[in-house]
Amino acid sequence: MIKCNVTINGTVSRAATVRTNSEGQTFICFGVKTTIPAKSGAGKQVEISVSMDGGESDTNPYAVGTKVEMRGTLTFRKRSDNLYLNFHADAVDFTPASDKDNIEGDIEFRGTIGKQVEEKTDKKGGKYLVFSAFSTEKDGDAFAFTWVRFIRFSAEREAFLVPKTGITAKGKLELSAYLDKLNIACRVEELAEWVKKEHNNQTQA
Fold it and tell me: What is the full DSSP assignment across 55-119?
């Protein structure tokens, strides 16, 4: 599970249309493009699929090319080697304070630590931990894995911080691009062990 409470600044790239959910309630869908900064060179432009409560009368402001600032919940869906961004907007501002593309906010994560947990030292002698962990979701008959890189600026290291352990984490979301690939990172603020439940001989996150 990866869920992010964020603010997104971008540009409408696909005009709004109306859809109906399984309970008969209408909602609007539209696309927004924004640029993820790169470690070096040009950033990576991504398109976010946005949904929001509303009906036909709410679609007019979402013309292609309109600048928006949105607040809501961002999730990720991994399919093969592609990572898709889905966003449920709670509020949209058509006069954003900044024209600069941006995704900023907090991330909640539940998943499994990867191969190693490294302790490093910064230039001032401070200790910090670096590790990666993955969240698992069903993709047809297979499983898809979305990786997140974690940085924890503390020398504290609980006994459960070892490879293959389940964790829950909260912190600041950091998105970046490298070689045209989107990277998800978290500056850890809260961390706890997650005891996974096994189902059909598969462990899911």
Answer: -GGGSTT--TT-EEEEEEEEEEEEETTEEEEEEEEEEEESS-S--S-EEEEEEEEEEEEEEEEEE
